[in-house]
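Page 47, continued from p. 46.
Same chain as before, 867 aa.
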Amino acid sequence: MTQGELPQIFGSIWTPKEPLNFVQPLVQDAARSEVLSFVAQRHDAHLFLVANVWDHMVSNEPDQFEGPSWHTFSERFLNGLERGMKKQATTSLKEELEREVIPRRSMELMLDRRRTHFLIDMRLMLRRLAHYMAITVDHRMEWQRYMTRTRYLDTSLKDLFTEGVETPDGGTFGGKGFRSTWQEGVVAVATALKRQPDAPRSARPGEGYDGDLVAPMIRDIGLGLAMGDTALDVMAANLGKAGSNQNGGWEDAGGRDLHVGAWHVGVLPPTAPLPIASVTMTGLAFAAWRKGLKRFHVACIGEGSSSSGEFWEAMNLAGARGLPITYILQNNQIALDTPPAKQSGVELWADKAEAMGFPSWTIDGSDPAAWHASTAVAREFSLAGGGPTLIHVETMRGCGHAHHHDDLYLGNPSGTPPGYVDRDLLTYWEAKDPIPNHRNLLLDLGVDEHDLTAMEQEEQERVNTARTELDEMEWPLPETVTKGVTSLHDADTHLERQLRYQGTTRQPSIAAPLDLGETQLVYAEKGGWTYARAIQQAMADIATTFGEDCVFIGEDMEVAGAFGMNMALKNAGHADKLVDMPLCEAVIVHTGVGAALSGMRPMVEIQFGGFAALGFNALINNASMLRWRWGADCPMTVRIPLGARTRSGPFHANMIESWFANDPGLIVLAPGTPQDAYDLLVEASHLPDPVLMLEHIGLYGLRGGLTGWGMNINQHVDTESVKKRIESGENLAIGQANVVRGGRDVTLVTWGAMIHIALQAAEQLAEEDIEVEIVDLRTLIPFDAATCIQSVQRTNRLVILQEGQWSGGLGHTVQSRIMEECFYELESAPCVIGALDTPVPFSPPLENHTIPSLEYVITMLRASVQS
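Result:
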């Protein structure tokens, strides 16, 4: 690491390898016009220099360029530009070039780097023009087919929405489609990519599908169709029918989401928080970069969602690491109801990439050829190591945000509502409708009218057939909705909850696994591992197990990590698996998701519990839903240090487990001992689910091997048993609570650091002949209710101990679930012990007072037994 190193300028040495075959000649005057238009957009200060160099160098060229002559001229022209810019600088500035413009950067260095960026932009522009001239009639016929299919599909979905179909409950439902009117040109992106439209439905990237990946926006239906999605799949998702691929991976369990996608052919399903797909695609590009895959990535986003901080985080990471991705930013002229001028003060949406250090340009979205040429050059550039690009598309949404929004946007024929769309703008873009205009171009190019009409009839029949099949498709059975929340569990059904409440189903009573006072917690006086050491060794072992598929991402990873936790990885020879990320928690988590979807085993670190709030959208609206929505494996582990008695104050000590209790799909762990920390982390790395590992900083042993409470909890850690469990697939620690002390008078359910407080309390109360049975949950979501219930059946009393704040804490959910089956067996009121309902304070006496103390726990346990 060089601390003062300047950002790498990716693509600075890139040149196209060979000329392209032009379908028709490029007229010199037209080429000049395109070049100057681009310079006016992106580098207007160089406009006159570019014009002068062009006019000087083109005088000896033919009036029309072919592919080879354009290829040669482009390089000559760029060399001439570079010489001209250098001469300008030396002639005009002279000794000023040596002056320091900003600390440690001279005028000469500054201009050299600016010139490099400019020449990259110019080279891309010239090559983009070459790709445009290489477009064939076959390309155009394919675009016309897919644009037509998209328009017919849109019309059918609009009719479906208007008419509706009968639902099993006797109601009427028409779905919720997002139309693509006037934006169908996006289909041409696909022809510039490596596709595999016939991949089997069971395929996944790297497992049966080896093409490029796209993340369309909700209205980019045409791009999905061109990649291999089908009209029927789109319709089934929009109506929520059983045959939809939004089925959690379960046959005939579709209808879980209206957002369409086809992962088996490389189409990432969008999400409602719109920037998520573009950031996830950045994570997939990160995985390709790490693994050296020759795979390109396309992330589409609208001008509204480009205001999101997560989109900026994505671009920031892509620019810093040179990822193989292009962002297609479509200015639809309106978000939902918010016009562009109220979204951003940027002059051109393409300018957004400039701050991130990578190239961008602007195209007319009504010209499918511009989409194709732009994607083709972006792909060529990225796969040669040039890094990311941004394609700004000027277009217009010729319809409402969705079918239900058409009347508000366009107006109802009755005049109520009148519609608020800018009529002049609407007229302008309607005249640029790509489907009729491109059809006329095909006729001008010699395509037979009969062939076009036949194609249109085929596409109409295709959509009509899909609509018939949709009508015949069954609705999903309601009970299928509970399947596959995680690989560990399904959701409870209403019937199961009812039967529990009625006492029809009960956990079988079992004998106590431990004798009175017997404990499983064995501390090592000498030679044991600290909690931190167990986690470090687990990470090293995981890195060895998964090899190049394993990557550790987060902030400050490559030196040591915030708590020095990565030193063991470096000492074990795994420094190459540590990747420093920008200070952007959302993109850190999204990158982990993308890497996991790409088949890697990422381990993500969020430095402190409170900082997880910055990645909350990525966890809740993305990672947690992937399996349930469309059956995707997401084998990602997220380590989050947190907890009190660390003297770190608010933002760092938050206990955050309850944040995730209302959003199923994540597995949340809270180990309290070195052995469990090792076992749970190793097991988590083998699961196909997103797992949060809540690591209590107060247990790390940072104070001379002692906890924040001054205790020694070191253990002799067995590293072999967990490997045998994983190999057999049985008796995993994850998902299983553990009775760590036998008792008869009261059950104390707890987790994390509170285990050791609980044990101390139990030992003191034993002197009063009060025997406490302690259950360590270990896995908080989904938690093992059976073990807790069976313990309460033995003791007939229940106390829950959590470090987190009392109000809204996970303890109340745990208590309620246990009481459903044990209410009439309780001999005293159940109790939840938690911290005061304040943020965690910084001052030692305040912090100690805020969280449950040993004395308070003893008092509450005694009260439970004596009441």
